[in-house]
Amino acid sequence: MRFFEFEARRIVEQAGIPVTSYGFCTTPDEAREAAAEIGGPTVVKSQVLTGGRMKAGGVKFADTPDEAAAHAEEILKLEINGHMPRGVLVDPKAEVKQEYYAGVVWDGTAKKPLMLFSDMGGIDIEQVAEEHPDHVGRGHISNLDPVFDFQAKEVIAATGVTGSQLNRATPILARLAELFRDGDMLLAEINPLAELTDGRFVALDAHMEMEDEATGRQAELLREKLGIAEDDTRDTYVPSEFERRVKAIDAADHRGVIQGKDHNFDGNLGLVIGAGGGSLTLTDAVRSQGGKPANYSEIGGNPSVAKACGLAKEVLQKDGVEKIAVMMSIVSNTRVDIVARGVIKACLELGRDPSEAIAVFRIPGAWEDEGARILDHYGVEYYDRSVSLWDAAGRAVEKVQGAS
Amino acid sequence: MSDAASAGDSIFIEIEMSDAVASDPELATKLQEVCPVSIFKATDSGPEIVVSQLDECVLCELCVEAAPQGGIEIIKKYG
Lengths: 404, 79
Prior knowledge:
A: Rossmann fold; 3 domains; 6-stranded antiparallel beta sheet; 15 helices; 39% helix
């Protein structure tokens, strides 16, 4: 779950990290009031969950409250990359002496949070890491033990920062690491972390992203502290009709799992595939051999006949699909006969001959003899584990291309 | 095409019950309990077959074991 900048600002503020006084506003009048309260020049920033705000005109500087209100009026109507703003953030135009970067990300390889710090803030950390690797400090923290200041200090010191700057930045990075872990974040980033001309360190901009699965556990933070409604999932992905229907079929029956995706797929070979990483491997195998998948799918965990049938029907009915390939990786515990019944039933209910519509059926695993009997009855050749994933995908491609 | 499908028909599985089983309300309750895919429905006059569930049969044969010997037969229509 992604957070707007104003929410990320509240999160770091609540963690005890200093921020400049700011105002989140949804009207020009509120922006005027916020700018007057801040006093002096301000910056008005669109609150959208997308990048490129500055380039699109979503960030403007104002010298007076009236100018801030005028900018807010424009920005509130400005669509950026298909996103309308939730509001604007009015910030003081800070007197910055030096910009730093402080961040914590999840290191999937080490399975631990990774603290990052750079004395080159205000630009993408990826760019700094590539062009100036000696200006990026790194250090893991435990998933369970407390975060100690000395750990943060080591990371910061690795970039050459010393003295009072080191002492002031240390608790900020340590608190950021704590909020990352306690808040089930995937990303917690302050960029820039500014050293002001008076020596204070403040977070000028922050980005946060929370693990989707943690939103239930983090209800207190989301609902009570940030006021985010339960149905405000921030999901920017719009599922296709195919994806919606497959999801509904899956939700209607607890047995097994099916998933279907078809964004950016427009081929003629429908895929009913799954098991142990099989979907990705098989999609790649089909593509590598010149095939054009009509969709991506996942099937496994012993679905019911109705569920397997539902997925196969949806795939078969997609525009442009000529045949389907039913394939699974390795030896699966999903029953071969049940999946066989499901896909054959789908063919029959759609008035298709299974021996013509099913290009390949390659599922090794439980009840494969029974599955082979069913397939044989309907004239569908069964491939067991003696046929590799690569060969099965290749045969499917040959059959569908031969039919075109 | 080998077989046709129409709504309400089973494609793969049929279940035959003896007259004694088909008229036994007590056994009907037991069959309803043991079948993991809800093929049997208990009624006052005995078990009824839920045709729409037949193809979900997982061939566990719990119904065969619950009934007197030879009272229930699972028929695979695919040979």
